[in-house]
Amino acid sequence: TSPFTFRKLAGCTLFITGASRGIGKAIALKAAKDGANIVIAAKTAEPHPTLPGTIYTAAEEIEAAGGKALPCIVNVREEQQIINAVEKAVKTFGGIDILVNNASAISLTGTLETATKKVNLMMDVNVRGTYLTSKACLPHLRKSKNPHILNLSPPMNLNPMWFKNHCAYTISKYGMSMCVLGMAEEFRGEVAVNALWPKTAIHTAAMDMLGGDGIEKQCRKTDILADAAYCILSKPKTFTGNFIIDEVLLREEGVKDFDVYAIAPGKRHLLKVRSDGQEEKKLSRSQQEGADAAKAKTESAAATPSGPVAETFRVIQGAVTEEYVRSTRGVFQFELSGDGGGTWYIDLKTEGGSAGFGKPPVTADVVMSMSSADFVKMFTGKLKPTLAFMTGRLRIKGNMALAIKLEKMLSQLNSKL
């Protein structure tokens, strides 16, 4: 029997930001099956050239699932749009019972590589948008019998590894978590305020853009977050101030089969939280390798290393074409630790292109630091660059757009390597 059988959100009104696609829409559809009212507060009114869904197509799906939908054009950076949508929701459905702060902006880039407009976007959407939407909904939530605010944000772990590769993004998401920390206490006894975060990466359009082809095999479906959110929102308002991991909660609720949530059952998933000490220790070792790589010195030019790394670069050199140079226009430097390590490069900017041992002939646009073993795995298709980057096994400095171009080239070279 399902742990959800006797929990119903029938008649409840949910105000969900970013509900036109992905996680927000999945939560909406789960509640809609109970006959809930869903306010779709998102900015996509016209079809996006690359992202699926609009507030209107989401409304059609919600109605088909058994709920009532109110699509509202809302950019959470615009306070008046939030206020207008809240007023329309109250007028249409008589109140608001649940707020899900799902809208989020992401840029997994280092401090020097994050443009100011990206910093502003993440702070405005993630922190300020969450705060202002909560502020606008709270007067109405306080009138509900069992009100909830649920933020899609992580538990606050101050381990530097969560900051070093994407400082601005982490700050913005932790800002959402701090809203939970403060508001849960401020409105204790009146409104439940909690945070929900996935244990693994979730397959969404945003993840496809970040990870490229094949990343979905390391992800779970949005259904797991929808089920976890349903559990939280069905609990009494005394359940507040919690930072919840989807899998942990669902196990407590009696779920045993998590393969049903996997895009590719049996595959190892890309972790977004560390749940045990052993995994932490593994990451610490890879971090140490990264530190070692940063200190690596160029080996004697007269004694070029041999082994898997050298063989990989030999194949890359043979595969470099003028087409790769024209389409990439970038120089990549690799600081590798371990066997066959040292400084290596791929020059896809200079006419003819080249690859080999030592520093590149011109200044590198991108510097990548990692272990030589992971480098070989990455260039032979056994390790996704996104996975290596997000778990700290790969550090990138410089032009992130060029790094993404290199990843695309890797997918073409894998058959030769």
From TrEMBL:
Entries under Pfam families matching the protein: adh_short, SCP2
Keyword Nucleus: no
Coiled-coil segments on the chain, per record: none
Principal location class: mitochondrion
Annotated compartments: Mitochondrion; Peroxisome
Region span, Disordered: 274-305
Comp. bias intervals (Basic and acidic residues): 274-283
Domain annotation SCP2: ranges: 321-410
Gene Ontology annotations for the cellular component aspect, listed alphabetically: mitochondrion; peroxisome
Keyword Ubl conjugation applies: no
Keywords attached to this entry: Mitochondrion, NADP, Oxidoreductase, Peroxisome
GO molecular function: oxidoreductase activity
Matches recorded under PANTHER family: HYDROXYSTEROID DEHYDROGENASE-LIKE PROTEIN 2
UniProt-listed NCBIfam families: PRK08278.1 (NF006133)
Family as reported in the entry's similarity comment: Belongs to the short-chain dehydrogenases/reductases (SDR) family.
Protein name per Swiss-Prot or TrEMBL: Hydroxysteroid dehydrogenase-like protein 2
Species this chain originates from: Loxia curvirostra
Gene: Hsdl2_0
